[in-house]
Amino acid sequence: MTAPIRVLLADDQDLVRVGLRIILESEDGIEVVGEARNGREAVTLGRELTPDVICMDVQMPELDGLEATRQLIAHGTAAGILILTTFDRDDYLFAALEAGASGFVLKNSSPESLVDAVQVVARGDALLSPDVTRRVIESFARRPGAPAPAPPGEAPPTADETPTGRTASAEEAAPPPTLTPAPELGALTDREREVLGLLAAGRSNAEIARELYLGEATVKTHVSKILQKLGLRDRIQAVVFAYETGVAVPGRP
Q1: Distance (Å, rounded) from C-alpha 119 to C-alpha 112?
Q2: Residue of 79, 123, 114 lying closest to 71 (CA atoms)
Q3: Per-residue pLDDT in tens (0 to 9) along the chain, 253 residues
Q4: Which residue from 68, 11, 63 is spatially nearest to 35, judged by alpha carbons?
């Protein structure tokens, strides 16, 4: 018999915790093992109870959910952390991803979506929806110095020309800052780099398998090796890593 998924709830609102408990424990195979009313309790209980998944609110007293996530990750927690919030804001989204969260779910999502998110994170996967992937890519595309491909059939502007063709000033003509390749990339095979690029484009394992003419089990093995070699927790961190190191470029297929 499969052991139940052990879940810790962290939210400062009693009614919210009660509602989350009812939703999760109505599903066979999920057990709520504890409740935290603030971020400090979440860190303490997260270390003491060793849950499989922590459902973490963002805004809590004493210690917010993002800082609690950072501390749990720093302590080496094996739990997947699922950020729950009422705010659909990019600053929360990216702060959660950078803190090491494995998923990001709005509190107004359906009960079925919450249960599915807990199950996904408990399997060791990251909850990386197409919308989240798109917003990660757009965020990198907006960063200063992010390379942008020229429109089809057009050459990119030279260093001393602006896109309109006029002569650029010295400041405008200065090349954008370049990304320093991460030394860890040298440990990846050509195939693994290819898979990493497709991960960054938001492809699922099944889609990567079809595109590369591989079995889905083979793709899963490649993904696991990529995460292991790069020292990453999950697919979300792999996407961020790919854009930060230039393996993937916003707007480029």
Answers
A1: 11
A2: 79
A3: 688 999 999 999 999 999 999 999 999 999 999 999 999 999 999 999 999 999 999 989 999 999 999 999 999 898 999 988 877 677 777 777 778 888 888 888 889 989 988 998 888 766 655 566 666 666 655 555 544 433 334 444 444 444 444 444 444 444 444 445 677 788 899 999 999 988 887 777 888 899 999 998 899 899 999 999 998 877 777 877 887 787 776 655 5
A4: 11
Q: Where are the alpha helices (DSSP H) in 55-189?
A: 65-74, 90-99, 111-122, 130-142, 170-173
Instruction: Give CA–CA dist 23/2, Å, rounded.
Output: 20
Q: Copy the structure tokens of residue 151.
A: 């429109």
Taking a C-beta distance cutoff of 8 angstroms, is the pair 65, 42 a contact?
yes
* pTM, two decimal places: 0.66
Q: Is 227 exposed, middle or buried (0-12, 13-18, 19+ CB in 10 A)?
A: buried
